Amino acid sequence: MRPRVEEVRIQGLGVIDEAVLELSPGFNVVTGETGAGKTMVVTGLGLLFGGRADPSRIRPGAERASVEGTLVVEPGGRVSQQVEDIGGQVEDGELIISRTVSAEGRSRAWLGGRTVPVGTLTYLADDLVAVHGQMDQQRLLQPARQRAALDRYAGDELVKPLRAYSQAYKRHKQVGALLEELTTRARERAQEADLLRFGLEEIEKVDPKAGEDAELRGEEERLSHADALRSAATTAHTALLGDPMEAAGSPHDVISLLGEARSAVEVVRDFDPQLASVADRLAEAGYLISDVATDLAAYAESVEADPARLAAVQERRSVLSGLIRKYAEDSEGVLTWAQQAAARLGELEGDDERIEELTREHEELTARLTDLAAELTRVRQAAAERFGGAVTEELTALAMPHARVVVQLAQSDDFGPEGRDEVELRMAAHPAAPPLPLNKGASGGELSRVMLAIEVVFAGADPVPTFVFDEVDAGVGGKAAVEIGRRLARLARTAQVIVVTHLPQVAAFADQHLVVEKASDGSVVRSGVVTLDHEGRVRELSRMLAGLEDSELGRAHAEELLGLAAADR
To answer: Could you tell me if 209 and 316 are in contact, meaning their C-beta atoms sit under 8 angstroms apart?
Structure first.
């Protein structure tokens, strides 16, 4: 489902006090007397889609002008997703857009119930509406839009080479970025490699072991306090087993005292089980103290003061501490750093080979891109010739028989995401005139007709769902006006079309006819918009033809026009 504008409500804009436009999916035409405010309809649509706010357009006496539009969009579609991404809401496939402009020039915008910058409406409008008016920025005047439109017009013939080009271009960019990084950072990488080599050589020379720093710290503590450790062990041993040099008969060691206690209890243990348990525990304590005393004796024998070993340990610790200060928190960290440094050094030392490989691939991709870009140019050039001829043919029917539209392709020096082609639509107003950019080669009225011809040729290829034309029929009449109406109706087969016109030949082709009615209340002029039925259309077309709504001749001519248009559709 293609999005479309369903309803527009305008308040306080120009001569319009309040008006509601109910629009059909096809061809909508807006007519009315001079000064009734037809152009304000286009102005209102422009505001709705991010157009420039002009406080001078606000109705005299009004504090602000406001425009509110209801759009039908596909739930979950591209537009709905864009609205939801900014926090707006689409309810039951309907999107509400609002815009106000104060008399002081302040402008505010709402999208899906959420306040948004006006620029957001402009961004959204790119995929929703194309406004073609003498004072409006023409969407197809943008170079990127012209190339994209030509590509869609080229059709399936361009799809395969463009896909191949896009893939090659993406890889070309990646390889180019890698090459630039490798070549521009050569000095930094060389310095990094030197630092890594120095560190690895330093660590290899020391050859640290995991946990070595903790072991050496413990050994240094023992060696530094060897005398104190041996003395403590000997004193404790003596306290437990006694000094063999002392005279017998005065036992003060722990083992002797435990023996006396055990002997005293053993004599009476059979009289009370509780005391027997105490006797057993005293025996266990004696065995345990004896073992401890043995260990103390062995420890005292093992501890020796070794100044040479102490000096060696301290020197080794000093060397390890230097590594730890530089590379990690402990010896395990130093070894981990060395592993990582070796891996990184391998990467850096392999850069030269990598640069050679990438250079070869980059050259191959450049050659491939050149060929693919040439193929894109060939397809686009053929499409441009077909397109230019088709638009020129349309212009002949639109009362511009001497005008000629061409699509100029220029080659960029660099590859772009879509190739090397720079596309520009140009027009020559007469055979002797050189083709100029559209906004320079055509007057305001002619430009609208040129845009109509372009849109008709692009119909089906251009994804924009709504087109707005203001005074597209300026300066023409008769048969040319009928041709304009016929082409607008053709465009409306694939898109919604909204046209402001003063020609009955154009209005007759509409699916829905809206008239801007002007009422005067003293010095105040008010306008409103009415949707016409068949009889109303006959009266309005008669007015446009003869200047009199009830002219029999005008009514007959109006009926004839409506019949011709109906038969043509």
So the answer is: no
Burial class (CB in 10 A: 0-12, 13-18, 19+), 66: buried
* 67: β partners: 10, 99
Residue 65 token pair: 């002008």
Interatomic CA distance for residues 458 and 449, integer angstroms: 14
**498 touches 5 (CB < 8 A):** yes
5 alpha-carbon distance from chain centroid: 27
Question: Residue 405's closest CA among 474, 473, 452, 471?
Answer: 452
CA-based torsion, 178, 183, 185, 189: positive or negative: positive
Q: What CA–CA distance (Å, rounded) separates 268 from 275?
A: 8
Q: Look up residue 371 and give its two tokens.
A: 């060929």
> 276-300 as b/e, with b when 16 or more CB fall inside 10 Å?
eeebeebeeebeebeeebeebbebb
Domain boundaries, given as residue ranges, for the chain: 1-127+463-568, 211-328
Cβ contact 419:119 at 8 Å: no
> CB neighbours of 546 closer than 8 A, spacing ≥ 6?
553, 554, 557
pLDDT at 337: 92
β-strand 4-13 against 64-72: which pairing, if any? Answer: antiparallel
Share of the chain above pLDDT 70, in %: 92
Most confident of 135-139, 233-237, 238-242, 499-503: 499-503
Band of the pLDDT at 160, cuts 50, 70, 90? Answer: very high
Task: Report helix, strand or coil for 431.
Answer: coil
Interatomic CA distance for residues 242 and 331, integer angstroms: 45
- Is the separation of the CB atoms in 442 and 429 below 8 Å? yes
Tokens of 447: 């430009």
- pLDDT tens for 313-337 read 788 888 888 888 888 888 888 899 9
Task: Outline where DSSP puts E strands in 436-551.
Answer: 436-437, 466-470, 496-500, 512-521, 524-531
Supply the pTM of this predicted model: 0.62
Between the CA of residue 224 and those of 229, 305, 334, what are the distances in Å? 10, 8, 27
* Nearest CA-CA partner of 25 in 567, 566, 512, 537: 512
Checking if the pLDDT of 494 tops 70, the result is: yes
In terms of CATH, what superfamily is 1-127+463-568?
P-loop containing nucleotide triphosphate hydrolases (3.40.50.300)
DSSP state of 141: G
Among 462, 463, 412, 423, smallest CA distance to 169 is for 412
What residue has token string 């893939």?
167
- Type of residue numbered 372: L
Query: Please, which pLDDT band fits residue 140 given cuts at 50, 70 and 90?
Result: low
Query: pLDDT tens, 54-109?
Result: 888 888 888 899 999 999 988 888 888 888 888 889 888 899 999 999 988 899 99
Q: Over range 103-117, report the average pLDDT.
A: 90
Single-letter amino acid, residue 157? E
Q: How far is CA 526 from the centre of its chain?
A: 46
CA torsion through residues 252, 255, 256, 262, sign: positive
